[in-house]
Design goal:
Length: 290
């Protein structure tokens, strides 16, 4: 039902198709945030402030994080939009060919954005933690050929039984010169402690903004329940933009997108929408079995 309502907007007894997850609406979201006083920054910039104890409590900011799971050229398009409006973002690349495309990585860094390693070494090494660590360091060195990588981010790999974050139960990524991993080094917004300086998390996982319901690992347990109870949940980008305009968004936010989902091409848009619908069914089953 949600998907149907997302597409239809009734006006003057007619039907107007309203497509979500286009590059046009992504730009509108960013420009609306800027108009409301939010600075759009990279995750490394956020982490460096934490390291130096520089407070952003009196500022409004959004950390822009992108997981480049597939269709790397789509990421260059979002990076160009961000560059055009003066925003900085972080792009996390996997090692698979659909993500790891050197010409795209170079083009995105040339626009002034941060890149990092979107690691899934525990899955790729079948849970062998020592082998996974060696695999991780090899690929970290690879990505550092293109950029002085300072931050990393776990790839959710929903169909794998291995959680990539388990690697850090034995090893310390900070010993490798890494200053941040979003799931470990973000001071998330706790409504129970009345801590207004914390960071509220939004992700387009599931091709919606309330996809935590079908997400296996891209969610913030313990915090998400608080945010949902407080009404900080929106399904479409249109609804999210309206919330920004009405001042309903917290002052500190991290927005994670998967650029493969964002396109103005009609055929590609429909293909992604249908594929994601099928993926959500599988993910919903996995979540129920956990």
């Amino acid at each position: 039902m949600h998907a149907f309502l997302d597409l239809l907007n009734w006006k003057n007894a007619g039907i107007t198709i309203m497509r979500d997850f286009t590059l046009d609406i992504y730009r509108t979201l960013l420009e609306t945030l800027q108009a409301k006083g939010y600075r759009l920054i990279s995750f490394a910039e956020y982490c460096r402030d934490l390291e130096t104890s520089r407070s952003r409590d009196n500022e409004k900011f959004v950390v822009l994080r992108h997981d480049v799971d597939l269709k790397a050229p789509n990421s260059l398009k979002t990076a160009q939009i961000e560059h055009a409006i003066g925003a900085k973002a972080t792009y996390y690349f996997r090692i698979i060919p659909e993500s790891n495309q050197p010409e795209i990585i170079r083009a995105i860094t040339a626009l002034g954005h941060e890149i990092g390693y979107h690691y899934e070494d525990m899955s790729l090494c079948d849970g062998d933690i020592d082998k996974a660590y060696d695999h991780f360091t090899t690929w970290l060195a690879y990505f550092r050929q293109y950029y002085a990588v300072e931050t990393i981010c776990m790839h959710g790999a929903p169909t794998s039984k291995w959680d990539g974050k388990e690697l850090w139960k034995k090893y310390d990524y900070k010993a490798l010169g890494i200053i941040g991993e979003p799931y470990f080094d973000t001071d998330f917004l706790s409504l129970r402690n009345d801590c207004s300086s914390g960071v509220f998390y939004l992700t387009d996982t599931g091709r919606c903004w309330d996809g935590y319901k079908v997400s296996v690992r891209d969610k913030i347990p313990g915090y998400q329940e608080q945010w949902t109870a407080a009404g900080l949940t929106w399904h479409t980008t249109h609804a999210l933009i309206e919330a920004v305009e009405q001042g309903k968004l917290p002052n500190h936010v991290m927005i994670t997108t998967h650029p493969q989902r964002w396109t103005n091409d009609t055929a590609a848009w429909w293909k992604e929408r249908l594929l994601q619908g099928a993926k959500n069914i599988v993910k919903r089953i996995i979540v129920k079995q956990q």
